Amino acid sequence: MPDVSIPLPDGASFSAYSALPPSGTGPALIVIQEIFGVNANMRKTCDIFAAQGYVTLCPDLFWRQEPGVQLTDQTPEEWERAFAFYKGFDVDAGLQDLRATLAFARHLPACSGKAGVVGYCLGGKLAFLMAARSDSDASVGYYGVGLETYLTEGDAITKPLLLHIAGLDSYVPPPIRAEILGATAKNAQISAYVYDEADHAFARWNGQNYNKEAAERAQSRTLAFLDTHLKEQEA
Prior knowledge:
This protein is an alpha/beta fold.
């Protein structure tokens, strides 16, 4: 599938990268970007999930600032631009866009019914919030930054949420990690894994902190989780 256009109620629209599974149909999965935009890493991630049977969409969440952002973590200049987009990002507007994408995906002819989300970094935080503020059937968050700000919303999560937390993540130091784990443990719908040997963005393909062993372990858990909550319940 080519990029698709996601409409909003006010008449505006934004783009999303899309990929179909080999069968042509399956549960929908919204892949939520990092601070680097819908770049090659996000598109590869979509393609991998599509190969596992998911109708994937990765919406451009920075479109209100600059459509089509595609950066890497390889140069200081790109980091500077990425953080500028992050600082200018409106979380509530981004969640509006994600809910619109989820609704759009559910109505695609290729979508077999269930729909979930998986997010990384900025997207990891947004995946937590989508679990709390949307009808996502299952949500996965990788090394979300700033979760401690929203922990009181954990009580609103009534469908399964899986969190992957990097043990060496300087953005989530041990006291904050303990706070997140303590709060989320109170909700039986939330499960969390800590990867003690891994740094932030350990699953970013070709990224500075890519950790193959941790990434593969997390991906295996993610696929088992999504298969259980999006595929098996459709059978």
